[in-house]
Amino acid sequence: MSDSILVLNAGSSSLKFSVFLKDSLKLLLRGQIEGILTKPHFVARADSGDIVGEEDWPSGTNLGHGGAVEFLFKWGRTGVLEGHGIAAAGHRVVHGGLEFTKPVVIDNHVISALERLEPLAPLHQPHNLAAIKAIMQRVPELPQVACFDTSFHRTQPAIEQIYAIPRKYTDEGVRRYGFHGLSYEYISSVLPKYDEELAAGRAVVAHLGNGASMCAMRNGRSISSTMGFTAVGGLPMGTRCGAIDPGILLYLMNQHGMDAQSIENLIYNQSGLLGVSGISSDMRALLASKDPRAQEAVDLFVYRIDRELGSLAALGGIDGIVFTGGIGENSAIIRARVCRDAKWLGLDFDEKANETGGPQISKENSRISAWVIPTNEELMIATHTKQMLLKKGD
Ligand code: ADP
Q1: Rounded to whole angstroms, how far apart are CA atoms 331 and 208?
Q2: Please, are residues 259 and 223 in contact by the beta-carbon 8 Å criterion?
Q3: Where are the beta strands (DSSP E) in 94-220?
Q4: Contact 365, 388 (CB under 8 A)
Q5: pLDDT single digits (tens) 40-88
Q6: What counts of helices (H) and strands (E) characterise the chain?
Q7: Residue having the nearest C-alpha atom to atom 21 of ligand 1
Q8: E strands, 181-234, where?
Q9: Rounded distance, CA 378 to CA 83, Å?
Q10: 91 CB-contact burial (10 Å; exposed 0-12 / middle 13-18 / buried 19+)
Q11: Which residue of 11, 15, 29, 324 pairs with 375 in a disulfide if CB–CB is 3.0 to 4.6 A?
Q12: What separation in Å is there between the alpha carbon of 169 and the centre of ligand 1?
């Protein structure tokens, strides 16, 4: 029986997946195949965390996205998933440009449109498409849905979406798109359950993980985000630099003879928490370290969140802050530092509630509220995929 939805998030070297029951959207299992081009390792876990499937390939094995998809479908016909046919696949797709303001059922026309967006997200879009094409080749009759990281931000005012560069570049697509949209959309969808007033008001959501960004929402819709043209802008992240003076890139080219590829590697893979600390991109490792460089990396992370909070709050005020993502959900220390610094916004921070993970971490009489809310991008994709199936009448 085709009673489940497969959710895929295809990266350059990994394929993350989850399987949900179509009707209840209950998670059946989740997992990933890592190192798909070099030394694949597959692991699948039930919702409980128990491992329900594991496999290793020898070093030098290049499964590619096609091979990884092939393996998943074969594996899915046995064991825990036996009897659970796939009704549709939902994909996380990084870039929907200006055209895709909501999820879409994939056909050849959509694939061509998404291929045209590849230059805007060369590090992600081709991999997202590789998984889509692999499924299309293997099971052409399976409905596939693309859910975009950019769509949620298309409600932003026009002025938020452009850069001060000559118009011809804006016209060819050099614009502020914003990312982490599926995470923000999920938070927006559950926020009324936590705080109805905030959901209807002006919320700043901080998605703090390996990738990090912030989004200002009004009445649940995006009005501004710290990421713009690519996912390297805005806040400093695990290995990404965030906003820097563009003159730095010219300096690196002129004084260090760096070309586009080495600059790309520097700003995406060697900067952020890793670059400043010289130790790790992992927040847990930095918080555990006594090395002053680790502390400075953490200080900079918090400082830049503070600055962006001020900048987003300047867009007509703020009624509350929501923390999410691996750091936002799990690090009481980072939340405490940001919240203490946000006293000027009228935040009366509840230290005790923060220690135990909230969800509310502001005191009752605080002028603005603060919350910890776990995100769930996979569930958002499964929800959209189910809705598209219903629309199609399946
Ligand atoms: P991604 O953006 O890849 O989805 P996550 O949202 O999983 O990443 O976030 C990963 C980050 O969360 C890492 O920097 C990790 O150190 C951090 N993190 C996870 N748990 C904790 C914790 N208890 N304290 C501090 N940081 C944490």
Answers
A1: 10
A2: no
A3: 104-105, 144-148, 202-208, 212-218
A4: no
A5: 999 999 999 999 999 999 999 999 999 999 999 999 888 777 778 899 9
A6: 15, 13
A7: 330
A8: 202-208, 212-218, 221-225
A9: 22
A10: buried
A11: 324
A12: 36
